[in-house]
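Loading example: each entry is read as three labelled lines plus one structure line.
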Amino acid sequence: MKLRDYIIRRLALLIPILIGVTLLTFTISHIIPADVARHYAGGAKANPETIARIREELHLDEPLYKQYGYYLNDLIHGDLGECYTERRPVAEAIKQYLPATAELTILSMVIAIFIGIITGVVSAVKRNSWIDHVTRLIAITGVSMPIFWLALMLQLAFAYKYPILPLDSRLGIGVVAPNHITGLYIFDSLVTGNFTALKSSLYHLILPSITLSFASLAIILRITRSSMLEIVRSDYIRTARAKGLRERTVIYKHALRNALIPTVTVAGINFAALLGGAVLTETIFNWPGMGRFAVTAVNNLDFPSVMGFTLLMAIVMVAANLIVDLLYSVLDPRVRLGD
Amino acid sequence: MEELLKVKDLKTYFYTYEGVVKALEGINLDIYKGESLGLVGETGCGKSVTALSIMRLIQWPPGKIIDGEIILDGKDLLKIPEEEMRKIRGSDISMIFQEPMSSLNPVFTIGSQISEAITLHQEVDKKEAEKRSLDMLDLVGMPDAEKVMKQYPHELSGGMQQRAMIAMALSCKPKLLIADEPTTALDVTVQAQILDLIQKVNKEIDSSMLLITHDLGVVAQVCSRVAVMYAGYIVEIGTAKQIFKNPYHPYTKGLMHAIPKIHVETKRLEVIRGVVPNLITPPSGCRFHPRCDHMMDVCKKKAPPTVKVEEGHYVACFLHGGVK
Amino acid sequence: MGFFDEWKKRNESRIKETKFTLNLFRHSFLSMLGLVLILFMLLVAAFAPFIATEHPEYATLINPQGKRVTEERWEIHFDEKLEPPSSEHFFGTNDYGYDIFSMIVYGSRLSIKIALMVVVSALIIGVVLGALAGYFGGWIDEIVMRVTDIFFSIPGLILAMAFTAALGRSIEHVMQAMIVVWWPIYTRIIRGQILKTREETYVEAARSLGTTDWKIIFKHILPNSFAPLFVQVTMDMGAVVLTAAGLSFIGLGASPGTAEWGLMISTGRAHIFHAWWYVFFPGMAIVLFVLGFNLLGDGLRDVLDPKLRR
């Protein structure tokens, strides 16, 4: 009951933020210096009548506040505008591309959290050992590497030089996609028992998800390490040792449980960077997701698509933050929901 | 009286950036069965380090036990493997700390933290451990113990947190309880209650106690014997009566004069001049000599040996023996 | 003489603390490595004309406004295109026969320019807004913080991408878009520090003694905000270059022909399987540049954080 109240209250608080985001996207789409109507009509050689018609359709002659009103009204009805590149509603395109992005980002986040926490703890426990130095070096290199360059290097190594992994896309040639349930291939193929598709999709996920998770892994490793180092010196860890607990229990139960609290926060904040990275990763691995769609849209000056994508990413972030807050209150009994 | 724990020539150093902190320079102590020994001294004189050394909980880096023996039931705790020592912690020797708030793990319930200690050292299942935890909470006078079992540390007051700590420390009926400033962080009104409780419960389960404090009032209330510590040395040790009525060491005398007395009219409370010395470059000879009113030439040159001044009363000062 | 001694005596603890900090820092191998990398990059940028082996027009910052380079100005050396690394071309040549080593050397200038422009501008905006919000509180605080919330709810790269797309592709627009995206982080840090410091005992003591608000801000609050801000700025120098390279890679940054590291990787991508050097070396340049700032920032954080230093 209390949880539901909290979620409702939090969702209500999100409304002003989302309105702010729409203001931002609206502003961005109105600083375009080019003549949008002419552009959509086909550029310089466009028929003036067509331009006029598009101008009318897009309400370009009306005052800005009215245009924003139309924009907001459309959004409320789920209308994100017309995708210029694919000549269909943006919402429809998003619906098609979203699952591929979801599958890639969720898997990458899971990898980053899992390996990041383990290596972070080991690094902290073996402080100043060679393991610590190596993991720290990997961590700091991880956040210093352009993700698209890492992707290309991995392709060069594992898809070309030693061709053990596929170069790009979601499934091998000739492999039929599993029946559409969620659009997440791993999930769908598991549910339908389509193991050919499962194998192929996992195989195709390896390189992109390693690429995408690397930077986040590095950040999670770093925060886990530093919070573990702080916690192992705390009074309650001394108590745990004075009780006679095994060092393993002290570290993995008493210390780690506390270290997870800042780690979850950082992982949540880092989700934004992960989504940004997905745009680049998808471009390189020819991944049929939102990111690649957005890059195509950007290059075609397809603003309704770019703005729809930006808005969607804001919603995803807001949802991610809500999940982090809920997780936080589960992990830390001192935090009371709604306080 | 039968001896429970004997500490011989214990030396613990800390290797820091600024130099080697010689926190303990050859501590000698013995604790008898059923007694409570008070360890007093100013902040930074090495009381807590002594306690943590006995528990073998000095963290390396930077700290290390350099030398000495800690004998419990005829066994030298500094020679046994870590795994064996681990089994002694919490069962034979347990400890309560100064800050109950930060000494309890914030993310686990009180109940789970107490029963964890019980299942660790005793062959009982989870349900039995929980029952015993509840009994312990009752024993330490925790109101609404059943509810407290499911509560988190931050939901309790300081006094209640310390009761929970005591319940946890005594849950396996230790032979020795080390209480490191157990009441310092608490409200004055709660301090007396907790002290009474520690004394009572300790007697009930028949364990000895090493009570560490800077508060002589606490010592007078609880302890049968007292050891006075100064800058890494035990300077005087004896029964409470001997120490309070007839202190020998100038430092102990200074401490006694610093207690406000109710029946004696004093114009001004006396204090010991100077401050606790830096233990990286401690004073030569007797470490107290720069602050001592009776300083002699020999005090600067040699550390005074510990000599017996009466039955059960020992002091380390050239004023009372030793080679001059 | 006497004055200096007195000053030394009065600030004894502070001097000791600073010495300790410097000493910690000197003994941190990784921080020193970071510093060396940064100095190396600065030297390369400063002496680019002496280091580069070729100095054609393409290597310098032609057409920052994003105008198209006319065909005549391209010196295409088809006879030398896509040559592997050799003693003549250390890092090989690209598809136009240009010397990649020289392009990277000149490219360091652009990277430094981008990093400085974006970080300094965002810092000024962010600190001013953060100080206003934290100091005055009330509705100013409310508005500023809600605006940062909005910015924080869109992933930075994606927001910068949308902005640049709207402004039109050019390296200048990439920088402008990134300034717009980057300021909120500084606002939050400064505001948080002000709120935290305001509660500190010594600030309350100063206030109770009748010290004016502005004096408190400048004497107590800002110096204490310095450490976290300094660490953030150092790290951001690298992060900005990474993001800019990402935008260039998508095709939003410098126009074709500019010696910009991200763009070089982008164009090299088409040749990755037969000319790995085209992608590899510009990427390494980015890694070393960003690594330098990250190592330094990391070291500074460890040194300046009182909880971790001992």
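Residues 3-89 of chain A form one domain.
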